[in-house]
Amino acid sequence: MSDLLRVDGLRKRFGGVTAVDDCSLAVAEGTVTALIGPNGSGKTTLFDLVTGYRKPDAGRVVFAGRDVTGRSPGRLYRAGLSRTFQQARVFPQLTVVENLVAAAGHRWWRLAAPRVSAADRRQAETLLAEFDLTEDADRIAAELSYGRRKLLEFAAVLMSAPRLVLLDEPTAGVNPVLVERMEEHVRSRHAAGVTFLIVEHDLSFVMRLCDPVIVLDAGRPISEGDPSTVRADPRVLDAYLGG
Amino acid sequence: MGEPVHALVQGLILGVLTGGVYALMASGQTLVFGIMKVVNLAQGALVILGAYLSYQLFVSFGIDPFLAIPVTTAVMFALGVGVHLAFLRPLRREDRAELSLLVTFAVALLIEGVIGVVWSTTRRSINTSYANDSWTVAGYQITVVRFAAFALSAGALGLLILVLHRTRFGRAVRATVQNPESARLLGVRAERVAALGFGLGAATAAAAGSVYGLLYPFNAGSHYDLISLLLSIVVLGGLGSIGGAIAGAMIVSVSSAVVATTVSPSWAPMTFFVLLLAVLLVRPQGLFGRPA
Amino acid sequence: MTWTGVLKGGVFVLTLAVLPLLGLPHWVLNMLIFVLMFAALASAWNLVGGLTGYPSLGHAAFFGIGAYAFALLLHGQTELTDGWQPFAWLPAIGVGTALIGVPIAAIAMRTRADVFAIVTITLLFVVQTLAFNLHGLTGGAQGLSFPVAPFPADTFERPFYYVLLGLLVLAMLLTFGTLSSKIGLALATVRGDEDKARGLGIPVGSAKVLAFAVSVGLTAMVGAVWAYYQVGIIYPQFAVDPLITIAMVLMVFLGGRGTLWGPVLGAFVLESGQQYLAYELGPSQFYLIAYAMIFLLIMLVLPRGVLPSIAGRLR
Fold it and tell me: Is C182 an interface residue toward A (CB < 8 Å)?
């Protein structure tokens, strides 16, 4: 299996804090890789660097064999790399369907194309059904519960048929029933060939779902391997407990 | 020395002296933005109101505008706090960013209307005995009023900076500006800081207004020109940065003055717009601002 | 386009089209002209301030540019034989202004909404100052003169009325077209969460600039018609007047930002109200206070505007 995503020597400083420090890791294609670590270990910053929301001070990001360091998030999205955010970011005043259609990566230069065409709706229908959002299709996204907005955000980034999906804390603030759903969706998409990189604090979720698991501490990876190996690694325990 | 050089240096002097006053006004403006992330479109109107208050004290009681400053600043500080409590506090958080622009715009109109009713629309100016005096230093003319205006503004700015760095309130303000979430966690009462900050902004407008009234004739409608200038300065310097406001004021003022004396006064107003666009093109967050 | 929508639009336009033929007194027609004018302006502003969420506080600058462009085009002539011919300049003025709007939008909309508002206010001030200062071009404070429209006195208002009605219909069609197309969806994402929109590969920059260009083009055309309506001369303080921007903004806010009928409703209500206030309260400063208070009331009580509040209540 080749590496779909590789990160070499990434560094990012904010004022006096080095959030990501000479970080090198890789995500093999076809895996559900987890990225865990204590608070402040640089996980979200790493996501921001990989997806182009922030520019690194040093280092490279290689996606599907091409150097994409510092490319804009929009271009990466079109290249097949999508992400979700910690606080379910959807377009609150748009309907569920519109949220999905907006994420589908259209040929936007066709100005006169209808806002939501029949073809758009059909494309969204499969995802709506899969994520059990069909009833809410025409409701304003702001009216959905937090958990369902997270599902919507997840569904939306799948509209462009990405190769790699970065999920930033998908289970945070979500009730256990929806957490199970989230897990099912990841599994079914994974079976369909999508690679995942998931930042998570819910370690049982990680243990059930992910392999390999990469542990980040103070901006760089300190351990990597299958869940049970990582769990037994003393360095990992140190990182979570120690200072 | 040749004519053009003389004009240039005269322009520079004029620009620096006037820049001080604008720096004071702009600091109040940028401070409010830093605390509340609100662009106060009423700042110009507050300055003009300050000018009118000084004017009235001068005309009715013979009080020199510089001496009236303690009174006008106190009154306008209270007014600023009142405006915040009445019109900005009631806005819901999610609406605040979008609506505050328009709300403060409406407050500016309100002030303009009230000024027009109380003082009518004739142009006023504060003509003290020394209004036309000037000194000649090394062949360059320095009007007494402008120099005093500069000295006062520098003093007031110094006081403002002192308040921000040496008092507990000032620390709370700076914490709120840099990181509202942490500030809240540390016990800083955001709404209180916001209200007092707005009052402080109005106070700087009052001080600047007294001085402004000495330098230029004004009427109710003068706030439009002023607010455009102030906003450009604040954006140029970087929203939320007092150092940026001072730098921006100096740059804009000096450039305008130099253009006025060397090219033509008609084109001076364009200079700050051109500068604004030029800076935004290269550095959208302004000279000292932080990237979005 | 639903059938009720077409019906609503049709009845609206037909009613307005018929009004001037009913022999109404001149002051009523004059008032209606201003209502139509502001309805068109409000709809135009809505494209930028409502659909895109970028509050332009300087749109009056483009109104003034349109007015002066028109006056300048006619300035040289001593007399007009065909009163309708000058209207032929409108498309050129509209497109020309839209083109000017492109680089301005490209720079001003790179930043956040409040910086954009500031740049537009500054632009308004600069245009007004230039109007006063460039004596050679604009006649400065003395105003710029041009031949009077040679329409018969008893039906003088009609041509202006119908042209403005036409501009209003154009503005509404453009708004409707935008709302129901992918461009409208793109603008809505900009308004909702621009960063995320950019991250999804949505061309936010182009969409914003396009909306701005169309908006200012429309505004300029209305300004040109206004100029023509001012019998023979325009002055800078009226052609480039901040109060025009304020009116536009307030009307859209009242009626409902981002909706099709909101700006029109806001214009009809406020402009009629304004004419009434001006009549009752006379001196302009009281009227300014009343305006400001209404403004504040709407912001604080009905921040979403009338139509969206009603729609929300019904849901």
Answer: yes
Are residues C68 and C238 in contact, defined by beta-carbon separation less than 8 angstroms? no
- Which of A89, A108, A115 has the CB atom closest to C180's CB atom? A115
Domain boundaries, chain B: 3-121+137-282
The residues in C 186-245 lying below 8 A from A, measured between CB atoms, are 186, 188-189, 191-193, 195-203, 206-207, 210
Please state the separation of Cα B269 from the chain's center in Å. 17
Per-residue pLDDT of chain A (243 residues; tens, 9 = 90+): 688 899 998 888 887 788 888 889 999 999 999 998 888 788 888 998 999 888 899 899 999 889 998 888 888 998 999 999 988 899 998 999 999 999 987 777 776 788 888 888 888 898 898 888 888 888 899 889 888 899 999 999 899 889 999 999 988 888 888 888 888 899 998 999 999 999 988 888 888 888 899 888 888 888 888 888 888 888 888 877 764
What ipTM was reported for this prediction? 0.86
How many Å apart are CA B80 and CA B107, to the nearest integer? 11
Q: Which residues in chain A belong to E strands, given as ranges?
A: 3-14, 17-28, 32-36, 58-63, 66-67, 81-83, 164-168, 195-199, 213-217, 220-225
- Give the chain C residue nearest A101 (alpha carbons): C185
Residue A27's φ and ψ, nearest 5 degrees, are -120, 115
Q: Tokens 């987890």 label which residue?
A: A34
Domains of chain A: 1-80+162-243 (3.40.50.300), 90-160 (no CATH)
Cα(B228)–Cα(B179) distance, integer angstroms: 28
Q: What is the dihedral of CA C140, C141, C146, C149, to 10 degrees?
A: 150
Q: Tell which of B110, B274, B275 to mutate to test the C interface (max C CBs under 10 Å).
A: B110
* C-chain residue closest to B95, CA distance: C303
Query: Which of the four CATH numbers 1.10.3470, 2.60.40, 1.10.10, 1.10.150 does domain B3-121+137-282 have?
Result: 1.10.3470
Identify the closest residue of chain B to C191 by CA–CA distance.
Answer: B98
Which residue of A106, A107, A121 is the best one to mutate when testing the C interface, meaning the one whose CB has the most C CBs within 10 A?
A106
